């Protein structure tokens, strides 16, 4: 079925933030050029004399707001530098003028005196505690926590692995965009903030005024745009203080430097204990997470939802040490901390296979979960058949036939926690002879609006052409969260199906009045009376249903997709080139197979890219060296292989319709399969990504 939510995009009517007609002021952030420096003095008189409105960190007044695992999106730390700048690109002042060019010119007139300090550019340097990011803590270890499930059995064989997953950026096609308008009783905000209807509550608490948040179409997010909330709060305060509308559009360089939404940077120390037949008895995993200039983070602990991946392991200990450095704070980008864990587990399985002299496939078969449901004590795996996916991958003789001295084939097996317990709310009504579904989040491109329309049309027995959608703000759907945590397949279906049933119940009574008869059936969009009369549902206007679907399982996550990937790479002329990637994935019952394929292709492309190309580079003092997409390593379409997606459903008993979330699982497994394929060619152990042949052969 064609996507019903992309026509406007194709004809240039996407209506992004920067497309909206606007009259008002424009803002530019002055950012720290230093990774670590005291802010001695800010002289804004010259800029103000020439018409600028200037806000500094000392001018900003907002309340600290707790919001759970929100990484760089937290409102618990200062929103602008006050006495000390903590990373390159941290906002130090805001300059507001009549247009963006004037704002940039006036920003150059603001004189800021810094006292540069030594910066911390690595986990290792941070752990020395010779330089401290947050001086009141007196240490750069801002949190450490250990979790243990089962007993650690050290009998049998043992290996130790040191691994490293590099920091990356989500780099959405559209960076942050905001319009803030002061009103008589507060603020109206138009932005591409992810989960804007819920996040607006945090801004209200921070600023103490009513906030109406208007959701607009987003050019991608996958968690990256959660971190926009910090900028919204600064801009909202400024609009109230200066009593002017303000528009701010982030630049690409700003996003790379200071989005507060980069992917995780993680160092692993893994002890694996296993028997001579390849069965893993215990894993002891210690991670050190570089969380940048933050005081806490949730990404290091999301792996608690699938600590042993798709494998049966008797005992596991997991220790997370969160380390502050002078880097852009990490955020919740696609997977929010699970991709590096998947990659590390697969590195461990490959190392065990090498140690025992057995195949990579065999060690996975021996350890894969083979009965469902499976309760680990930290997760309830609802359904799946990872061994079946593995067998399908191994049957691909055409792929394995590509292997030669320059071409390797890699294998990886994975699951990922999806559908965190929570709720989603929708509205539904009949208007202008169409069923209209009200959604409370800005479209991000995943096809959630399309899914809602498809579901409603199927449940009502009418054509998708008779169903449409509208985006509602936080005053209309205040508790709608939208995408995040691979949740929307389940929550959209649950909310839409509940709303459809309620709408049918209400309209049945209206149909009986019109027919002057008892309705005995509803079929193919019509209420049918006892005497044979019928009335079409789309003709019954005037009712609106508000429905919230809630799901609460035994543990935090409720559904587990599984996947098995085959990666083919060629190594020649000192370069690694991916040439084919095959995915076998269990998404539960797919609502729309084309959407599943699109999501898997996108996530797989990211995983391949993280394994081969993308990464931030800092020097020892945390000065950012990758300030453009070219330096950073953003791939083009030509750098990525053909990606084949095969859907192998195992319905979930835990969710309506049996669906599972699949937005995040493709990333880590793709990176793992590509890493394994490179090892297959070069015959050397790889312990970090992105993979650099130059580093490996030095």
From TrEMBL:
Entry-linked Pfam families: Ald_Xan_dh_C (PF01315), MoCoBD_1 (PF02738), MoCoBD_2 (PF20256)
Record key words, sorted: Molybdenum, Oxidoreductase
Keyword Cell cycle: no
Top-level division of the source organism's lineage: Archaea
Domain Aldehyde oxidase/xanthine dehydrogenase a/b hammerhead, first and last residues per copy: 11-118
SMART domains: Ald_Xan_dh_C
EC number: 1.2.7.4
GO MF annotation list: anaerobic carbon-monoxide dehydrogenase activity; iron ion binding
Name of the protein: Carbon monoxide dehydrogenase large chain
Organism: Saccharolobus shibatae
């Amino acid at each position: 079925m064609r996507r019903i939510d992309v026509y406007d995009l194709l004809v240039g009517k996407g209506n992004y933030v920067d497309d909206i007609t606007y009259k008002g002021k424009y803002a530019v952030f002055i950012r720290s050029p230093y990774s670590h420096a005291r802010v001695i003095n800010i002289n804004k008189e010259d800029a103000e004399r020439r018409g600028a409105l200037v806000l500094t960190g000392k001018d900003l007044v907002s309340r600290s707001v707790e919001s759970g695992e929100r990484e760089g999106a937290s409102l618990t730390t200062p929103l602008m530098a006050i006495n000390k700048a903590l990373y390159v690109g941290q906002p130090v002042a805001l300059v507001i003028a009549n247009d963006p060019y004037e704002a940039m010119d006036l920003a150059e007139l603001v004189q800021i005196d810094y006292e540069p300090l030594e910066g911390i550019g690595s986990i290792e340097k941070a752990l020395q505690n010779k330089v401290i990011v947050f001086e009141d803590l007196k240490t750069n270890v801002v949190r450490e926590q250990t979790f243990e499930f089962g007993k650690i059995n050290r009998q049998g064989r043992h290996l130790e692995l040191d691994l490293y997953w590099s920091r990356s950026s989500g780099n959405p096609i559209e960076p942050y965009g905001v319009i803030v308008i002061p009103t008589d009783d507060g603020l109206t905000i138009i932005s591409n903030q992810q989960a804007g209807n819920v996040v607006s509550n945090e801004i209200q608490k921070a600023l103490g005024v009513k906030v109406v948040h208007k959701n607009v179409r987003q050019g991608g997010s996958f968690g990256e745009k959660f971190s926009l909330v910090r900028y919204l709060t600064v801009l909202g305060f400024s609009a109230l203080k200066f009593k002017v509308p303000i528009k701010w559009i982030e630049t690409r360089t700003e996003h790379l430097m200071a989005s507060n939404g980069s992917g995780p940077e993680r160092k692993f120390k893994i002890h694996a204990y296993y028997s001579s037949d390849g069965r893993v008895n215990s894993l002891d995993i210690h991670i050190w997470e570089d969380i940048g200039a933050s005081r806490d983070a949730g990404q290091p602990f999301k792996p608690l939802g699938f600590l042993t991946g798709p494998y049966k392991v008797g005992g596991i200990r997991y220790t997370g040490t969160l380390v502050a450095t002078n880097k852009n704070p990490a955020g919740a980008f696609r997977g929010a901390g699970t991709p590096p864990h998947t990659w590390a587990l697969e590195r461990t399985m490959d190392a065990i296979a090498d140690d025992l002299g057995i195949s990579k496939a065999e060690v996975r078969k021996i350890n894969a979960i083979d009965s469902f449901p499976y309760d680990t004590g930290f997760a309830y795996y609802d359904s799946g058949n990872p061994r079946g996916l593995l067998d399908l991958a191994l049957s691909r003789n055409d792929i394995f036939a590509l292997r030669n001295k320059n071409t390797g084939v890699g294998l990886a097996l994975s699951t990922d926690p999806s559908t965190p317990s929570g709720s989603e709310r929708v509205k539904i009504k009949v208007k202008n002879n169409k069923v209209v579904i009200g959604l409370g989040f800005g479209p991000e491109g995943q096809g959630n609006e399309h899914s809602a329309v498809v579901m409603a049309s199927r449940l009502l027995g009418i054509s998708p052409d008779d169903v449409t959608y509208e985006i509602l703000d936080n005053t209309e759907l205040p508790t709608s969260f939208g995408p995040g945590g691979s949740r929307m397949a389940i929550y959209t279906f649950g909310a839409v199906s509940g709303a459809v049933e309620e709408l049918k119940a209400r309209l049945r009574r209206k149909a009986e009045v019109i027919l002057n008869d008892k309705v005995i059936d509803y079929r193919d969009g019509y209420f049918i009376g006892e005497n044979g009369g019928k009335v079409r549902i789309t003709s019954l206007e005037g009712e609106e249903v508000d429905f919230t679907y809630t799901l609460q399982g035994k543990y935090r996550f409720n559904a587990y997709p599984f996947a098995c990937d085959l990666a083919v790479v060629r190594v020649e002329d000192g370069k690694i080139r991916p040439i084919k990637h095959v995915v076998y994935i269990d998404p539960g019952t797919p609502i729309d197979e084309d959407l599943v394929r699109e999501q898997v292709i996108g996530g797989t492309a990211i995983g391949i890219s993280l394994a081969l190309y993308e990464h931030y580079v800092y020097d020892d003092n945390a000065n950012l060296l990758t300030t453009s997409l070219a330096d950073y390593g953003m791939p083009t379409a030509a750098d990525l292989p053909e990606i084949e997606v095969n859907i192998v459903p195992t319905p979930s008993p835990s969710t309506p319709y049996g669906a599972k979330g699949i937005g995040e699982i493709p990333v880590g497994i793709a990176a793992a399969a590509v890493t394994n394929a490179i090892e297959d060619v070069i015959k050397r152990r790889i312990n970090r990504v992105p993979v650099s042949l130059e580093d490996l052969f030095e």
